[in-house]
């Protein structure tokens, strides 16, 4: 199925590892130009795979997406190197651990900054540019199963931020629909990434019992859902949450 992503410019926040890396590779496979945003994880190996092995046009763009000035520079650099952004994928995030009774003010603020404020900043930048230029675009926000189920394992701040992002996605979709700008989200469940490796190793049996399909997810399965929502094949879809979690959330 042709997703019509050839030469589309896609900006992926937190694109150098985990789900972000899988999304970048999948976009490149479809012919998109990819801006890989990162802060700490060296994207050199990914850039080599994108440009040398897959023939994609790509650029690595360092910057903290929780900071307004950095967000503007990320968009400016992407435009200089690849052209105006057509697709924004908000994937950057951390998975901090602290029970509420032990949580510090900084723990709470940091979780909200990365998982809620950062997507707000990048979404605002994208829609301002699209509206000013008369362009249309697509946004896909990565939320989480915990946004809908909560958590008992010390991730209440993360879950709260992702729940906020899920609702923000709907509100922004309503605002932007008259302008032809689509905003959707993908809510992954347990995925085989380094972010959850320690928790998975410690509680493997417990987690498997909660997953109807009986296995952990592959990042490529999330990437496939993201690509669909970012493509012209999803032209009549906005404000939707696509759950990719092995049946842990059924609606």
Description:
- The structure is a single chain.
- The protein has one domain (9-240): Rossmann fold, CATH 3.40.50.
- The chain is 46% helix and 14% strand.
- The protein has 8 helices and 7 strands; from the N terminus they run E-H-E-H-E-H-E-H-E-H-H-E-H-H-E.
- The chain has a 7-stranded parallel sheet with strand order 3-2-1-4-5-6-7, sandwiched between helices.
- Helix 1 (18-29) packs across helix 8 (219-230), helix 3 packs across helix 4 and helix 4 (105-133) packs parallel to helix 6 (156-176).
- 44% of the residues are buried.
- The mean pLDDT is 93.
Explain briefly what this protein structure is:
By secondary structure, the protein is of the alpha/beta class.
Number of structural domains:
1
Classify the fold: give the CATH topology: Rossmann fold
Order of H and E elements: EHEHEHEHEHHEHHE
**Helical residues, percent:** 40-55%
Number of strands: 7
Helix vs. strand class: alpha/beta
User: Architecture, according to CATH?
Assistant: 3-Layer(aba) Sandwich
The average pLDDT score comes to 93
Taking all Cα atoms into account, the compactness measure Rg is: 17 Å
Quickly name the level 1 CATH class: Alpha Beta
What would you call the shape? globular
What is the terminal separation in angstroms? 26 Å
Number of helices: 8
For the biggest β-sheet, the strand order reads: 3-2-1-4-5-6-7
CATH level 4 superfamily: NAD(P)-binding Rossmann-like Domain
Report the β-strand fraction as a percent range: 5-15%
Low-pLDDT parts are none
């Amino acid at each position: 199925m042709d997703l019509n992503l050839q030469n589309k410019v896609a900006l992926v926040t937190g694109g150098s590892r985990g789900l972000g890396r899988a999304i970048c590779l999948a976009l490149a496979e479809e012919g998109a130009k990819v801006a890989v945003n990162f802060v700490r994880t060296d994207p050199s190996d990914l850039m080599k795979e994108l440009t040398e092995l897959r023939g994609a046009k790509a650029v690595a763009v360092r910057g903290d997406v929780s900071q307004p000035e950095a967000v503007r520079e990320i968009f400016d650099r992407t435009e200089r190197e690849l052209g105006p952004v057509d697709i924004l994928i908000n994937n950057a995030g951390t998975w901090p651990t602290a029970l509420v009774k032990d949580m510090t003010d900084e723990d709470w603020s940091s979780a909200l900054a990365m998982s809620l404020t950062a997507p707000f900043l990048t979404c605002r930048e994208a829609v301002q540019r699209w509206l000013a230029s008369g362009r249309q675009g697509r946004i896909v926000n990565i939320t989480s199963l915990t946004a809908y189920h909560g958590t008992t394992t010390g991730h209440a701040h993360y879950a709260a931020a992702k729940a906020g992002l899920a609702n923000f996605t709907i509100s922004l979709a309503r605002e932007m629909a008259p302008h032809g700008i689509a905003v959707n989200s993908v809510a992954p469940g347990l995925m085989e990434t380094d972010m959850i490796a320690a928790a998975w190793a410690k509680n493997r049996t417990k987690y498997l019992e909660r997953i109807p399909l009986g296995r952990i997810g592959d990042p490529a399965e999330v990437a496939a859902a993201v690509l669909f929502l970012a493509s012209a094949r999803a032209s009549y879809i906005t404000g939707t949450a696509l759950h990719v979690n092995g049946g842990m959330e059924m609606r």
